[in-house]
Every structure is written in C-alpha cells, then in structure tokens.
C-alpha cells in the first residue's frame, strides 16, 4: 500500500496529503508526521506548487497555538528558546527575561506534580481529567498540588479539583482570531453578550498580570495582533483590520517559498512488539474524537447530543461475530488499568482486532483504561 501510494503521488503534479493528529494511539503522532514528510520528500512533493502536507490538529486553532509558541522548546514564530538572538527580541519588547532552556510538556508537568517537583498549575481551557491518558494518575497528580487554578467555560471534572476557578468567555462571547492548518488567520467577531462576571481570556491574563506587578501593553485583539506582527516575522503581513471574511494566509502572501533550508529524511522505526496483544487483552484500543463533539463545550449542546449521544465502543463486523455481539448491546471494556461500561457500535470500516472509543464523554471515561507511558492499550470485551 505504501509503495502504491508513493507511485500515485509521484505520477500526479498537484498532491495534498492531509494527516489527522494521530490514529488513536497516543505514541504515534510524531512518527506519523515524520513518515509522511519522508514520503512527501521522496516523491518530490515538497516545494512543488499546488502540493503540500496539511497536519490537521484536533482543535480549530491548533495551528494558531503552535504559531504562538505553545511548545516547550519554542518561542512565537517557531524560534527556539535556545536562540539568544530570538530571545533578545522578545526580552526587549516585554522588558523581562526568558529562560534559555526548554520547558516541560503537559505529561511531564503532571509527572512532576505527582512527584512533588511542581507545586502549582494554571490550566486554561483544558480538561485533562477527561482527555489525558490514565485518568487515575491525572487525578492523583492534581491532588498532589499545593495550588490549582482552572480557567474554563464550565465546571469540568478538572475544574472541580481546583482551588480557584476563573470563569472564561466562550468563542461566541469574544473577538479574536483562529488560524487553521492552511495557516489562514481568520477573524472571530463577538456574537453574544457575556454574563455578569465572565471575562475573556485576554482580560483575565491582563488583570492577573497587573496584580503580579507586570502591566501588559495589549488589551484588545487588535493590539495583540500588532505586537505579533512586530515580533513574529511570519505574521508581518497579517493585519487585524484587514482580515475581513476571507482572512490572511501568514508567511507566504505571494506564494513564495517559506524556507530555503534543505529538508532531511528521518528514519522512522516501529516497535512491533508494542503492538502484540496478549491472550487476556486481545483487542487494540484506539481513542480519539468524533465528528459531532469536541469535549466539554459540545457535550452541553442538546442538539449535538441528539446526533451523538454518549460514548460507545466501535467494533469490526468480524470481531462482533466472534464475540457474538450486536449493535447497541451493553458490554464491559477492560484493560489492565480499569473497566468501563459501553454499548457496541458495529462499524464495517473498523479494522479487525481493534476497537475505537471516543474520549469526549464524562460518563464513559475511556482514559481510565489508558496509560501515560505512551504504549498502546489492549483491552478485552465481555457482555454486560
């Protein structure tokens, strides 16, 4: 299949590869990206007009968060924190010092909380009790903290663990921008009046910063975008007032190449032993999102709940026959870490030997089954 795909790509002039953020196995995202990049270079796609790779982040602003440095080793604009020249530009603008060493990933922070090396966390728009692997360990890490602040729309299971909850405005109650995988910066206009006491994320950050002795120079989306355009070369052409209905694609407004740096192939090795099931847990568990839901926001919608009510376990037709299961039949799904009750959903497209469970639903916490060690999870299914 890989050779056939490579031939198809090389035989066509304009090819776009769209890659989802993982295939349901939490350890495969980086390797998947590297493998696709290798394939694109091997077939001559890279740098070819009308061709490219699109990595689809799970959320509508995943690209925007990466652009703004939401990775442990990066500054806004994909500059390395170890780059003294890049750091100096931000330090001069912000009148403060920036660490030269990379920070920690989300999973590393939770590991640090559990071990006691991190005493406080400030979570913004994140619900790790539901969405992170190994729910029990996540809760243990949060309970180990001296102080937890959660900034979110709803009192999520994570927010219920917090010492302080800061109610934040939803996307419909504020203005700003979203950047999609195409790198298109799109304007978001406020459509609803906020409830009393609810502030936007920008307002909360500004007020907290002021109380901590630092006055931010940006209090509106327009001011934020002007600062971004000044400090991030990729966003130089992006002007908030000119975004209009179509938005602006950053970095390459005239279609010129973004980089002249030579690409390199990265060997991608798969650990076959990790994908070997055992007799007690024969089915590979895939965890991910579904079309109608995105977590705590969408599950509060009665309309979306009608088309996507609750969780389920998707099985192949062959596995359903082997287990003598039918659609909507109650079952228990068990791993080495836990067990949850679900209903079966037979899916003809599901690969034999695998099952899929969405992670959105608090009442069916699939991550009680998974582990943070980045190894695939195997499960067994029995009738309920």
Question: How far apart are the first and last residues' alpha carbons, in Å?
Answer: 38 Å
Order of helices and strands: HEHEHEEHHEHHEEEEHHEEHEHEEEE
Radius of gyration over all CA atoms, rounded:
23 Å
Side by side, the strands of the main sheet go: 11-15-12-14-13-16
As for the number of domains, it is: 3
| Major β-sheet profile | 6 strands, mixed, barrel
CATH classification, class level of the largest domain: Alpha Beta
Topology:
Elements: H1 2-10, E1 16-20, H2 29-42, E2 52-56, H3 62-67, E3 74-75, E4 79-80, H4 84-94, H5 106-115, E5 120-124, H6 128-131, H7 135-144, E6 147-152, E7 164-167, E8 176-179, E9 184-188, H8 201-211, H9 221-231, E10 248-249, E11 283-288, H10 302-307, E12 313-315, H11 317-322, E13 330-334, E14 339-346, E15 354-358, E16 377-383
Parallel strand pairs: 1-2, 5-6, 6-7, 11-15, 12-14
Antiparallel strand pairs: 3-4, 8-9, 9-10, 11-16, 12-15, 13-14, 13-16
What does this entry look like structurally?
It is a single chain. This protein has helices at residues 2-10, 29-42, 62-67, 84-94, 106-115, 128-131, 135-144, 201-211, 221-231, 302-307, 317-322, and strands spanning 16-20, 52-56, 74-75, 79-80, 120-124, 147-152, 164-167, 176-179, 184-188, 248-249, 283-288, 313-315, 330-334, 339-346, 354-358, 377-383. It is α/β, with parallel strands linked by helices. The protein folds into 3 domains: 2-56, no CATH class; 62-249, Rossmann fold (3-Layer(aba) Sandwich), CATH 3.40.50.740; 272-383, Barwin-like endoglucanases, CATH 2.40.40.20. The longest helix has 14 residues, at 29-42. The relative contact order is 0.11.
